[in-house]
Amino acid sequence: MENEGINNDLNTEQVPGPLPETDTADEASKAQKKKKLIKIVLIVSAVLVLVGIIGSVSAYAYYQDKKTKEKEAAEALEKAKQASSKKESSVNTPVPEITWIDPVEVPNPAFFNQAMIKQYGIENSYYRVANLRGGGEIYLVKSINGQEILYYRFKKGSDGQYSFLKSLSDKLYPEDAGFLNATVSIDNQTTYTGVTIPEKITLSNGAVFKKLYQSDLFSKIDNTSKVADTKDGSIFSANDNSHLGSSMTDRIFYLKLADSTTAQFSLILDYFNRETSIPSVTLSGAQNTLQYSSFLVSGCGSYDSTILSSYSVNKSNLSVIGSTSLGDEVYGISNTGSPLAQDIYAVYKEASSNKTLNTPDKTLKELSLEKFYKISPQPVFITRDPLGQYIVFLRSDLKSAGGCGKPVIYLYPEKETNVSVKVGANVDVSIPPYKNGWQVTAYPDGAIKTDGRVWDYLFWEGQGFGMYPEIKSGFVVKQGELRQTLERHLSQLGLNKKEKADFIDFWMSQLPKTPYVRLSWLMTADMNKLAPLNISPKPQTLIRVFLDYEGLQRPISIKPQKLTTIPRKGFTVVEWGGLRNW
Length: 582
Description:
Strand order of the largest sheet: 25-29-23-35-33-31-30-34
Oligomer: single chain
Largest sheet: 8 strands, mixed
Structural class: alpha+beta
């Protein structure tokens, strides 16, 4: 029955009609076999299709299962990595290669040959300024040799051995090979960021600062406030309003390096040429041609600028009178009764009363406050700098003429040499003419040739770019002993017979005739801050002496000053001068 059912199905599906009656028995048998074969083939095909479907479903299920397991394994591995990373970071937190600290003064680590230190009269201070990863330290040496202040940096390795960091230090003085102790090696390669002084610094607000010179340790600078942090260090301003009244303050800028050494910088004002002192501004509709000063109090030194105290910035006391070459507003004093107007007038009044006014024009002397502010062109104008502070400019002929009195420069090369000399100062008077510096030919005997003439020395007067130092030591001398004391001091300071004679001839007639005179000497390190010299080729020996003095009716108590002689070696430059108070 089962077969017949199948056959009937087959007959129905494969044979549309009954067999012809003419078929023989053999043909019927063959047809029957053929039907069975077709049936078997169909059954096998059905089985294969079924097996294929089942296999495909199984393979797909297997694939999906494998994929899921792989994903789970990957996720588990990633979690394990993250866990391991967190564990590692919590245990191995990166340690900086170097950690700078505030300078800690330490006993002499014996970096130098002490016999040579004594021979050259060098005074050193030693500081630990950094700790190194894995052990070791960085040391700073502040070296005062009478010639200038130099900074040296040394590294102490984890093995306790010292090395001189040559690329991070000033040039050794003296240059003799035996100046360093034999146990100290020289490292020409190691360097650290944050202890090199750039020539210029530009802030994000567009303010640009120009390097003037290396200065003292940060701890020696008073009244500082931070201006900005830069990749080279932090910029600070130091203010002093002790002599300007309450409405103004003098300002000077310093860059503090990572080891707390500093350099003095000047804020560049594109409209003010500090060498000519002629600001590019229009005042009451006219282009300015006069000299102005951005600091009010005169002397041999100067500040970067005089600015308004924050409380005195009152626009009701000011009025717009012009513009800078950059298009910024220029202000004049509109309220002559304000404290600001009176403080500015007091600077003029003191110079006029003391007969030190920087002008021969008698019409500008002894002016009342009202007449002072009616002078044309403007006696005073005020601008706003890139830091947002207000700078006061006073006409140069309305302030004191006090300054560096007759500094003279002698040049002694070892052979005939073309020499370039520039002074970091506003040079008012010079012989031979100072054309943004002197270009001369110098000879071993001291002769100086330029423009077809021969001179004994270079002479200049003016105000240094740096800040005049506070006088804390010196000598009180009786009037009758003044000349011989000067001769003795000048010998101790290293001047030769001709240089001493030139000094005495000029200054003896200028010194006070009082019963006593206080003599204080600024030496090379002080003068390099006050009015740095840029000399090319660079001299091997530089001796600079400058006299600050005061007439006294009776003796005063003052700390005795130590004077040292610098041995002359190689190309030597000597300068002497004094404070001009007339």
